[in-house]
Amino acid sequence: MSYVTSFKMLEDAREGGYAIGAFNAENMEMVKAIIQAAEELKAPVMVQTSAKAIAYGTVATFEAMVRSEAERVSVPVALHLDHGDSEELCLQCLAGGYTSIMIDGSKLPYDENKAMTKRVAGMAKVLGIPCEAELGHVGGKAEDDNSKPDIYTDPEEARQFVEETGVTSLAVSIGTSHGFYKGVPVLDMERLSEIKAAVSVPLVLHGASGLSDEQVRECARRGICKVNFATELRDAYSRTVQKYFEKKPNVVDPKEYSREAMAAVKEIVKARILVCGCEGKAD
Ligand code: G3H
Ligand code: ZN
């Protein structure tokens, strides 16, 4: 099955009432951990890289790593550009073999977001690649107050946005934010149901690190088909390396501590796949 676009896995999730886990990778170890976790649970999976990860590793390097790991497993694996912040980067990923992209114009005024998204979704369509966009804004804890409903997605605006841009999935703002939460996040579940009723394409939840299992399950029940996890994986990786060196400060072989970091990431990914309900959903 291996290296595929995200079209079918997201449509299947929409019809089946579960969500696909989308996991951010920063390096080879995380790519391997994510794909191995999915294979063990027979789950379709999305590996995603941010613009910063691409600046660190390059499109070609991530594409080669994910494709070659995907070709060694039986489950469908998509490689997604997460929060593509320019048309150039989206084009680079489309040309470079990514099988799914996101154009994020959510910080722009509505009309500018719509115009840029429409151009990128059009390019992606020609190449047969799915395109996610964001309406409303999911910020980071440091920069925004994410409990303000004025940055939440408006259901009617979402309907128009999807129809007019041709995007194939939509990221929504309902109270989540990126990074770990300081308090207990409160999600606007009614709004999510209203967006689901208004919009025909699969919906995406960003900022899932730190949400309770029940919150993730409830979001999937109400129409979320893709759930993004990044901070929890970075945290698991880094804390494991940190603890390793507390115990064994003289080790110099990166394989030694990276192996443990990889195992920690794999464990988190498996737990989140189970919460998303996509285990056993691979063809
Ligand atoms: O785009 C990536 C995600 O929305 C991840 O958010 O770092 O809070 O898990 P997170
Ligand atoms: Zn995000």
Tag the structure with descriptive keywords.
11 helices; single chain; binds glyceraldehyde-3-phosphate; alpha/beta
Overall strand count:
8
Shape: globular
Bound molecules: glyceraldehyde-3-phosphate, zinc ion
Q: What is the spatial order of strands in the main beta sheet?
A: 3-2-1-8-7-6-5-4
Q: How much of the polypeptide forms β-strand, as a percent range?
A: 5-15%
Radius of gyration, in Å, reads 18 Å
Query: Which stretches are low in confidence, meaning pLDDT under 50 for 5 or more residues running?
Result: none
CATH fold description: TIM Barrel
Q: Quickly count the helices.
A: 11
Q: Into how many domains do the coordinates divide?
A: 1
CATH homologous superfamily grouping: Aldolase class I
Task: Walk me through this protein's architecture.
- The chain has a single domain (7-276), classed as TIM Barrel (Alpha-Beta Barrel), CATH 3.20.20.70.
- The longest helix is centred in the last third of the chain and has 23 residues, at 254-276.
- It is globular.
- The model has no long low-confidence stretch (mean pLDDT 96).
- With 283 residues, it is α/β, with parallel strands linked by helices.
- Strands 3-2-1-8-7-6-5-4 form an eight-stranded parallel sheet.
- The protein contains eleven helices and eight strands.
